[in-house]
């Protein structure tokens, strides 16, 4: 099929950037979205033009490196699917597709479609862990975890840290990302000793990074490729409230 | 055609530094014999760790906790993205929670046997010992492993073993274990013991007075060529499966870190040992950029077949039973569809070579669930494999409930890597190699759920204990940025980059990579022959020449330049590819993932040659014909037998 791509091109952080149209023939419906961009880039290189920079790595939907806002939706039109797992059979001949980077003040553009998501690492540094130095662990079977808690913790722990939640949020809030980690560790017995300090520190870091506040619009969970449940945010808020009470 | 002098013989390797005595006491003995570093002195010692997967992430975190000053590097935008994240199945440990007869001895035995008797006993025994501590550590970090109703840890049996020793977190065990290590690492970043360098790629090793003292790395955002020095360097940069272009590896996985170290004197062991996984989604066209693994658990209920007739293009549902060949059930009546990975892969290749493959290009076989759906009901099949069926449909657009799945083997893991001794130290003092990047524990074939075990064993428990013996000799004299060796290493990197940018040819880096990959798959893939490997070596050399005259790398160094990143990696893959073929050529036996057509039993199975090849082939770089150093493998605790699955 034949497509028109309108792609955000931005040479570096200082460049204001612009949308640039590209025509692409012979797109196979079996290609993944990123393979379609590979084809474009191969052509651009041969023509002596700068290929489009975009982040990607595992191409199987788990590393969280790929991003792209496709026709206005982070990770594109197919629900519960990362960009790398989106295939061209979901588009049709003659389509015009716009491709943009994640847009958020806390995720500055590095080049073209590549953004800096290191703010997420710093939120984890603030407390997204259990302090268990290597060698200090008790025997594994000595810590039973009710199966339902293990399931719910797992559902939150599947977050791949891609940042689609931030890109979709009208406030560019990192609430779903942060809440996923709070929920994962808060549901496990191992996470209890640091539970309230963790939520306070992680939320403070989230604010410090320039992410917006959460107004419960739910766009985050709608685009999340891993379906992180919206109620993780309630859990974060509940923990934060308890932490604030404990502190006062 | 290449005939003579592809390599020369060198001195054998006599000392692996493994302590003497009963195998079960060696790890204790080594830990007691090794020197320690006083906690107050640790912060004066610095260690560079390259790679943040299970091995590198856990090592950097642990070394930071011990108080060393750690510099951790990854090419991704965050350490959490390393490709360990994609591991599905699980992690083995000899906990014997099922009371089903498991033990350290049994895990050790299974691993040595599974590796087709080409791994080192002392290392594998230690791996089995340490396995139990790994589970404790990961649980303490809050890794959400699968649980029984009573809240205790669940396990499953995996990869054809008879005990249930595989711990798992749905189909995302690698992700959960990696996030555990990543969180421990970020905790140390916050504590100030680990300095993190993301979007940095190691391009050279710095050696001063014969010891590894640092690396040259490129900041992938600014293009700045940086030099980083330390008292020791740890490579945890993963495997080299992407030499085949198409593999289940992440797109960025590459051999550059280990290859640069090899060029500087580290021996490269058993490069020809690659694992080809039988159940991957086949290629859909020339645009294919990577291959996706489907869990091999599918073979428990799916039946593998191809049409009896060549070139049969009918809809599979219209092919009657008597015109189908369930070839695994036919050839291996006792194991049927559950034969080990290497055997299932080769059998698929054989039927496709006969012209009976299905799907685009005839490179696929059917994995059919029609019988299972009839026998168990659609719901039971959906409960068991629903998520895998969805993943398959997302990629292929076909519903496995309606049409048989198509599968084909793909490169998945590389058992070879830099040679290391019992301390995980390479032949360069101060250079340690852990995880998939080294060669040590899997022999010629890796068992399912053992990669995660080895990565974490090396990173959490082995390296942090063995490296202290080396670091105790320090602190070493400080190496300044103006040191001759540092300057030379930096200049060699900038020279190479300038050369790549100045060729300005007419072919893209990827076009070379694809061609090299196809060549390797054809001649150094599932089946290797003397003639094919010689042909491949000639062709690789020609193609490499062409690469250095015709490659086109647009843009400049001083920016984010993904084409430049690729070109540098491909240049190293070319050199590795030649060594892989030489290694495969010299090993005229079949063993594990290495099948030489000339060495098979009368009924077509792999035939090992223990008399001539029970050794590790460790190759020395010379710039010309490599030199072969043999480490003889002696088995005191396991009896060598030929595998059979008929």
TrEMBL record, chain A:
Keywords assigned by UniProt, alphabetized: Iron, Iron-sulfur, Metal-binding
Sequence ranges assigned to domain 4Fe-4S ferredoxin-type in this UniProt record: 150-180
Keyword Nuclease: no
InterPro entries named among the record's database cross-references: 2Fe-2S_ferredoxin-like_sf, 2Fe2S_fd_BS, 4Fe4S_Fe-S-bd, 4Fe4S_Fe_S_CS, Beta-grasp_dom_sf, Helical_ferredxn, SDH/FRD_Iron-Sulfur, Succ_DH/fum_Rdtase_N
GO terms assigned for molecular function: 2 iron, 2 sulfur cluster binding; electron transfer activity; metal ion binding
Gene Ontology biological-process annotations: aerobic respiration; respiratory electron transport chain
Cofactor(s) essential for the protein: [3Fe-4S] cluster; [2Fe-2S] cluster
Stated family: Belongs to the succinate dehydrogenase/fumarate reductase iron-sulfur protein family.
PANTHER family noted in UniProt: SUCCINATE DEHYDROGENASE, SUCCINATE DEHYDROGENASE IRON-SULFUR PROTEIN
Name the record gives this protein: Succinate dehydrogenase
TrEMBL record, chain B:
Keyword terms, alphabetized: Cell membrane, Electron transport, FAD, Flavoprotein, Membrane, Oxidoreductase, Transport
Region ranges (Disordered): 1-22
Pfam families documented for this protein: FAD_binding_2, Succ_DH_flav_C
Main location per the UniProt record: membrane
Annotated ranges, domain FAD-dependent oxidoreductase 2 FAD-binding: 47-452
Catalyzed reactions per annotation: a quinone + succinate = fumarate + a quinol
Family: Belongs to the FAD-dependent oxidoreductase 2 family. FRD/SDH subfamily.
Name the record gives this protein: succinate dehydrogenase
Protein species of origin: Actinoallomurus iriomotensis
Source organism phylogeny: Bacteria, Bacillati, Actinomycetota, Actinomycetes, Streptosporangiales
Name of the gene: sdhA
